[in-house]
Amino acid sequence: MSEAALLDLNRTIGYLVADVSGRVVGRVECPMYGTAPDVPDALSVRSGFLSRRRKLVPANAIREIDGSSGIVGLSVASEAIRAFL
Known about the structure:
Elements: H1 3-7, E1 16-18, E2 24-32, E3 42-46, E4 54-58, E5 62-66, E6 71-74, E7 82-84
Parallel strand pairs: 1-6
Antiparallel strand pairs: 1-2, 2-3, 3-4, 4-7, 5-6
């Protein structure tokens, strides 16, 4: 994923996230920062409306970000995404 696409992670709050087979994983809650304080390297994805469980989607698992439809497409199956509290 290019650096320009990584900067787009800041604009994905509220987008739906779909895995490689098209199943909805959840909705983007916020970008996550780890290696650099100004460049997000993952997304926090909430599974359901009232769910407390979240999934951590690393930037390298993102295949595309479609701004017109508000969908983040992943290159991995939803089972490959780690859950966190």
